[in-house]
């Protein structure tokens, strides 16, 4: 679940319990459950409206699925490009940091302040 292990989940629950107290936690959980249910219902309503509109305009479910697949493929490609760009940026940043460290290490003697 979200890449969180059992120990981390227990720790998070402990922190929540410490912050809000034992009397507020059930109320918060109830509110979050209601919000999740409303979000799910809204999502289902939007999907049904899209499907109704598409069917009214002559599109069937297979063409909608292919369009959705194409959109998802484009989103995944964009994510992959962003991740590779961030990895390249991180590598360049690390290289620059290493250069600055080498410059600092090469300085010998007392360091004078520049005004």
From TrEMBL:
GO terms for biological process: protein transport. The chain crosses the membrane at residues 6-22. This is Sec-independent translocation protein mttA/Hcf106. The lineage of its organism: Bacteria, Pseudomonadati, Bacteroidota, Flavobacteriia, Flavobacteriales. InterPro entries: TatA/B/E. Gene3D superfamilies: 1.20.5.3310. It is a single-pass membrane protein. Keywords: Membrane, Protein transport, Translocation, Transmembrane, Transmembrane helix, Transport. It is found in: Membrane. GO terms for cellular component: membrane. Its main location: membrane. It comes from the Bacteria.
